Every structure is written in structure tokens, then in C-alpha cells.
């Protein structure tokens, strides 16, 4: 069993808060808090690097976990940045802005940016767990890698399929029901779920069972808070055919289309 190094974990929080604050300052001139989405995966990567620097250099999971983390973080941040470029503030953040005026510009520092930093800090626990011992590689590590690969394919391919679908003006009010989106309404969220439970499996293999609150929190966010629940709150108003899609297709976990 590996020990929980609370000092190393705490050392990441100020870095994430500073990164969030700098990004908040950028958002003020842009009047667009959506840029926090591009920062999300980079904060988790930064946390992983900090944990790696504080770890025993003999830890056998250092290199491959950092590579997995870097590939995921770079792709997701780049995709979100390109997707949002020139489109203004996301409607979800506009709704938050409207609910918190006046002075949302200041309030967004803690309501959006510091909150994201705090969530990233908690969710990053499996990275700390993966680096917390020199226990040899075991079957759980391979399971974690398979989960991560599954998640990465779902997330990257799902994003690519949806982006290609949206580029066609004919699909302006249509619902994406092909490709991975035929089996789950949110293949990108399912991918995120698999990726972080994959990291958790690696952490448990290293003895870091205490890191499980991280992916557990992510799962709650995906299902009940900022993921499926928030995204589908008003989508039926914008895409009338979405109600039929909901009846036929699983929300998160892939499954056959229902008739």
C-alpha cells in the first residue's frame, strides 16, 4: 500500500489557482469565460507533472502515465480551442453570466475559474496515486491502459464525428445519430469516464486506493452536474428531434439502439 503524500498534493493547488487566475484576467478583455474549457485538461497535466517531480524516480509508472496524460491533455485543449475560436461565449456560460449579474466579471473568478481549478485538483488524485510507490507493474495497470485507450478513441473519434457533422449547413438543426453517437448520446463523456477510471486502475495497482474520489467526482459531474444533465437541459428546444433520440439511445454507456 502506498502512502498519501498530502504535501505533494497540496503543492499542486496554488499552481492551478494561479493558472486559473491568469486565464480569468485574459477572459476579462475577451468578455468570454469559455476559455476556461481550454485550460481544463492543461491544469490536470500540470498537476500530474508536479506529482511526478515529487515522486520517487524509480516509480515504474512515471513515464507511461505522463505520456498518456500529455496526449489526452494536448488533444482535448487543442480541439476545444479550435472549436470555440471566433464563436463567442458558450451559451452555458452566458446563462451563468445572466444569473450572476451584476459584477459577473469579478464573480467569474471564483464561480468559474477557481472552481475549475479546485475540481481539477481533486480529480487529479489518481495521478498522485500512480506515482506514489515503486510497486511493480501488474494486471490492473494493463486494465487501466485498455480503459484509457478505449476512452481516448471514444473521445477523439466522437469529437471528430460531431465536428464533421456540424460543418454541414444541412445539419444546423439536426441530431447526430450515426457513428459512435448511435450507441451513446455522449461518446466524448463516456471517453472521459474511461480515461480517468483507467488512471484510477493504475493508481490502485500502485497501492493508491485513496485516489478513487477523483474519478468518482468526475463521474458525478459528467452525469449530474456539468455534463449530460446540463447539456440536455434545453437541447430539446433547439433540436425537436432530440426527444426521440433520448428514447432510443443510452445517455453515457454505449448500448444498442432501442426501437
What does this structure look like?
The chain is mostly helical and 259 residues long. It has one domain. Helix content is 68%, strand content 0%. It contains 12 helices and no strands. Helix 2 crosses helix 5. The N and C termini lie far apart (48 Å). The mean pLDDT is 93.
Notable traits:
259 residues, single chain, 12 helices, mainly alpha, 0% strand, globular
Name the overall outline.
globular
Mean pLDDT, to the nearest integer, reads 93
- Counted up, domains total 1
Beta strand count: 0
Q: Segments where pLDDT lies below 50 for 5+ residues? A: none
The proportion of residues forming helix, as a percent range, comes to 55-70%
Query: Could you give the distance between the termini?
Result: 48 Å
- Helix-strand category: mainly alpha
> Helix count?
12
The radius of gyration is 19 Å
Beta-strand residue fraction: under 5%
Main beta sheet, described? none
Order of helices and strands: HHHHHHHHHHHH
List the helices and strands and how they pair.
Blueprint: H1 6-30, H2 36-53, H3 62-84, H4 91-99, H5 104-123, H6 125-130, H7 139-167, H8 187-205, H9 213-225, H10 228-231, H11 235-238, H12 242-248
Please outline what is shown here.
The protein contains twelve helices and no strands.
Amino acid at each position: 500500500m502506498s502512502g498519501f503524500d498530502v504535501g505533494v498534493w497540496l503543492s499542486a493547488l496554488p499552481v492551478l489557482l494561479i493558472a486559473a487566475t491568469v486565464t480569468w484576467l485574459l477572459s476579462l478583455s475577451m468578455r468570454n469565460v469559455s476559455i476556461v474549457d481550454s485550460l481544463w485538461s492543461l491544469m490536470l497535466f500540470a498537476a500530474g507533472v508536479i506529482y511526478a517531480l515529487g515522486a520517487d524516480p524509480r516509480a515504474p509508472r512515471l513515464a507511461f502515465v505522463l505520456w498518456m496524460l500529455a496526449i489526452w491533455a494536448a488533444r482535448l485543449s487543442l480541439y476545444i480551442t479550435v472549436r470555440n475560436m471566433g464563436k463567442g461565449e458558450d451559451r452555458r456560460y452566458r446563462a451563468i453570466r445572466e444569473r450572476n449579474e451584476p459584477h459577473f466579471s469579478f464573480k467569474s473568478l471564483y464561480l468559474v475559474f477557481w472552481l475549475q481549478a479546485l475540481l481539477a485538483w481533486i480529480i487529479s488524485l489518481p495521478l498522485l496515486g500512480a506515482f506514489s510507490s515503486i510497486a511493480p507493474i501488474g494486471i490492473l495497470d494493463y486494465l487501466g491502459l485498455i480503459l484509457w485507450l478505449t476512452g481516448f478513441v471514444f473521445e477523439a473519434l466522437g469529437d471528430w464525428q460531431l465536428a464533421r457533422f456540424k460543418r454541414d449547413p444541412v445539419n444546423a438543426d439536426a441530431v447526430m445519430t450515426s457513428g459512435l453517437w448511435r450507441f451513446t448520446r455522449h461518446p466524448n463523456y463516456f471517453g472521459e469516464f474511461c480515461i480517468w477510471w483507467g488512471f484510477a486502475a493504475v493508481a490502485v495497482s500502485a497501492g493508491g486506493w485513496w485516489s478513487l474520489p477523483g474519478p468518482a467526482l468526475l463521474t458525478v459531474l459528467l452525469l449530474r452536474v456539468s455534463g449530460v444533465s446540463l447539456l440536455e437541459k434545453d437541447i430539446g428546444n433547439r433540436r425537436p428531434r432530440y426527444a426521440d433520440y433520448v428514447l432510443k439511445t443510452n445517455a453515457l454507456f454505449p448500448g444498442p439502439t432501442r426501437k
